[in-house]
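TASK: fixed-backbone design
INPUT:
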């Protein structure tokens, strides 16, 4: 181990100042070279070494005391980011949203389209891209710092928001330890000051306010809150949503790998959506009847970034599997609906319906489906589209 770790954390009251560096890798198995240009504006971030210890107990005239074997040099990665957009023009990656790397290694496939000035992220069942991440802890006087780095990181993501609060993106993942020297040195200490130029985003995060919401039954053309798809009503309102990709990331073990781990793979469970909304007496949607008849629901949320014309649109189809309409909070009678995400329907005529065809392509339609439909979109279960009109 190089340098010294003396007083790294105690010099800062045990808390430590953190810096997050993250970059999507060009090739799995080859860590990206991280620089200060890869600094991320995150609300929370941690890279935690997670070795496995294999116990050993040899036949002996004494009590157990044989050293175990330490193996599986991997790391768990957690991160939380606000969804902050940039003006899209070239659509070459340089103007992607600041949470781009989280989506791409968290199950979402990115399609960039300069013609429509958009990035479309589709939740796919194929293995996601991988990222190299590093957590840097700096002491109070900036005289020493620790680096914990992992590569080949894949994760499971959730997109969520509460009314009047920012849209959030959370990742829980796993990767291979690649701290600069070796896996045997999971927290590499440097006995000097950290230096670099950090530029965090100037734009505001998306907020769940002034948002176009559509919770729609395609079979009966019935919209929550009334109105039409082109002009939704406001008789009800959405209080929160949570889309969970539920990928259950596990270590990809292998005899040829250093410390027995190549990286991580996500077990694809399909994902779920939970929405919490006002339950109103004049709401035409009968959620219980929909569940009993096996009918899907279409969910659409479109928000505009403060101070810009940039938009983010989240849409999916889901089945109302769990219903709780007994909650009364802040004088509101609320209903919580949750269930699994479904295959895309044909938005032109709703035939096949949602959940019926795993080969149905994503498409655009007036007020129904994607706002924009660039060519070559993969099939998937949910879509997050970023665009500059």
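OUTPUT:
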């Amino acid at each position: 181990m190089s340098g010294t770790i003396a007083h790294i954390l105690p010099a800062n009251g045990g808390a430590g100042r953190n810096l997050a560096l993250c970059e999507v890798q060009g090739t799995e198995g080859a860590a990206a070279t991280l620089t200060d240009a890869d600094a991320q504006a995150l609300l929370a971030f941690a890279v935690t070494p997670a070795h496995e210890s294999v116990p050993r107990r040899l036949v002996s005239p004494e009590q157990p005391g044989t050293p175990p074997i330490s193996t599986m040099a991997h790391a768990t990665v957690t991160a939380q980011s606000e969804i902050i957009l940039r003006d899209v023009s070239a659509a070459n990656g340089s103007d992607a949203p600041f949470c781009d790397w989280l989506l791409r290694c968290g199950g979402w496939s990115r399609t960039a389209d300069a013609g429509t000035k958009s990035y479309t992220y589709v939740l796919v069942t194929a293995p996601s891209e991988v990222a190299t991440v590093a957590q840097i802890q700096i002491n109070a006087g900036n005289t020493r710092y620790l680096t914990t780095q992992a590569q080949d990181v894949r994760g499971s993501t959730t997109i969520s928001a509460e009314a009047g609060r920012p849209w959030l993106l959370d990742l829980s993942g796993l990767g291979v330890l690649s701290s600069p020297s070796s896996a045997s040195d999971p927290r590499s200490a440097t006995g000097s000051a950290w230096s670099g130029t950090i530029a965090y985003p100037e734009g505001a995060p998306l907020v769940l306010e002034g948002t176009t919401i559509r919770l729609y039954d395609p079979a009966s053309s019935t919209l929550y809150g009334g109105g039409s798809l082109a002009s939704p009503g406001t008789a009800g309102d959405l209080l929160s949503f949570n889309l969970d990709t539920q990928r259950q990331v596990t270590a990809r073990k292998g005899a040829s790998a250093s410390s027995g781990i190549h990286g991580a793979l996500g077990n694809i469970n399909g994902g779920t959506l939970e929405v919490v909304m006002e339950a109103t007496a004049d709401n035409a949607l009968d959620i219980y009847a929909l569940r009993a008849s096996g009918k899907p629901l279409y969910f659409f949320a479109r928000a505009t970034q403060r101070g810009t014309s940039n938009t983010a649109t989240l849409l999916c189809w889901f089945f109302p599997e769990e219903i709780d309409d007994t909650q009364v909070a802040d004088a509101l009678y609320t209903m919580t609906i949750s269930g699994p995400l479904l295959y895309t329907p044909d938005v032109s005529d709703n035939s096949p319906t949602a959940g019926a065809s795993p080969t149905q392509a994503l498409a655009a339609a007036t007020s129904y489906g994607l706002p924009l439909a660039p060519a070559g979109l993969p099939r998937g279960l949910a879509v997050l589209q970023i665009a500059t009109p």
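COMMENT: Residues 1-5 have pLDDT under 50 and may be disordered.
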